Amino acid sequence: MRNIIILLLFAAMAYSGHARQWSTDILGAPFRQTTVNLPGDYAGDPVCTVVRACSHGAQRAVLYIHGYNDYFFQKPMAMQFIRHGYSFYAVDLRRYGRSLRPADKPFDIRDINAYSAEIDSAISIIKDNGINEIVMLGHSTGGLIAATYLSRHHPSEVKALILNSPFLDWNLGSTEKFVPAIAAIGRLLPSLNIPQSRSTAYAESLMKSAHGEWTFDTDWKHPVSLPVTAGWIHAIDKAQRDLREIEHPVKVPVLLMMSERSISGDTWNPDFNKADAVLDVNDIALYGKRLSDNVRAIAFRGGLHDLALSSCPVRCLYYSCIFNWLGTIMPIH
C-alpha cells in the first residue's frame, strides 16, 4: 500500500506545473518558455506558449496578452515590471508567434472564448510558482480577449486589468457598415478569406529598418496584415457586442490607455509615429469606460497603437502611469 501511495505522489508531481519543461526563450535570459497543449478546436490540437521572466521573491505577476498579427517580443516592457517587483508572464496564443505550427492558418479563431484555455493555463502556471496576485495586461485584440475573459470568469487571483489600446470596436471607415453581414456569413462560411488593408504605414512606424526603433520577426508580425476569415470577423464582432450588453462586465479595476489621436492613410509620414494608426481612440474611450465601475482612462499625446512601442518620452510616461496606478489599487503590504 505504501508503494502505491508513493507511485501516486510521483505521478501527481509529473503532471504538476513544477514538473513542466522550460527552455531558454528566443529573447534569451532571463526569459524561459514552455509549450502547453490545449483542448482540440475546429482546426485540430492547438498549443500555446507561455514565456516567463521571474523577479526574485516576487509575490505578484503580470500576465501579458498580445494583439492580432503579433506576439510577445517587447523585452523592455517585461523588464519594467521586473524592476518594479513583478514576475512577468506572456502567452503567445494558439496560431500566433511561438505557437504557430506549419499546418496552422495564422491568427485564426472562431470564438474568442476559446482563448480562455490559454489564460487558464497561464494563471495555473503562475499559481504553481507561488504567486496569487495577478495583473492582466492586454494590447489591442489581447485587450478584447482579456476583458471578455474577465467578463465570464472571475479568478480571485486576478486583481486588476490594464488595457493598452484595446480592440473594443471596428475602425473601418465607410466599409464598417458591411461588418454585420460578413459576421453573419462567418457563421456559415467561417473559412472564407476577407482581405485586409495593404498599408505598411503602421509597420514602418515601428520597424528599426524603416522609421521606428524596434526589431521583430516579420514572419510572426507581418508588415502587411494577412487576410482574415469571415469566422474571425464573426468572433471579434460577437465579443465586442457581448461586452456592450452587460453593465460593467469586468469586476476588477481597469486602467484604460490609448493614444490621444488616431491617424489613417496608406503612405507613411512622420505623423504615423505620433498617433494610433489602427483603431479609433474615441471608440476605445467610449466603450472602455463602460467596462468596469472602476476605470481610470488616460490618453497619451504622441502615443502609437502599441503604447509600449511609442517614442521614449511617451513610453516612459506610459510606464509611470501604470506603476502609479498599481500603487494605488495594490499597495505594498
Distance between the termini: 45 Å
Q: Please report the number of helical segments.
A: 9
Low-confidence stretches: 1-18
H-E string: HEEEEHEHEHEHEHEHEHEH
Strand content: 15-25%
Can you list the strand order of the major beta sheet? 1-2-3-5-4-6-7-10-11
- Percent of residues in helices comes to 25-40%
Derived structural class: alpha/beta
What is the secondary structure topology, with strand pairs?
Elements lengths: L1 H13 L8 E2 L7 E6 L9 E7 L6 E6 L9 H9 L2 E7 L23 H13 L4 E7 L1 H12 L5 E7 L14 H10 L4 E2 L6 H6 L21 E2 H15 L9 E6 L21 H8 L6 E6 L11 H18 L4
Parallel strand pairs: 4-5, 4-6, 6-7, 7-10, 10-11
Antiparallel strand pairs: 1-2, 2-3, 3-5, 8-9
Helix pairs in contact: 4-7, 5-7
Give an overview of the whole structure.
The protein is α/β, with parallel strands linked by helices and 333 residues long. The protein is 31% helix and 17% strand. The protein is built from 9 helices and 11 strands. A 9-stranded mixed β-sheet has the order 1-2-3-5-4-6-7-10-11, with helices on both faces. A two-stranded antiparallel sheet has the order 8-9. Helix 2 links the parallel strand 4 (60-65) and strand 5 (86-92). The radius of gyration is 20 Å and the shape is globular. 42% of the residues are buried. Residues 1-18 have low confidence and may be disordered.
TL;DR of this structure?
With 333 residues, the chain is an alpha/beta fold. It is built from 9 helices and 11 strands.
List the keywords.
333 residues; alpha/beta; two-stranded antiparallel sheet; 11 strands; 17% strand; disordered N terminus
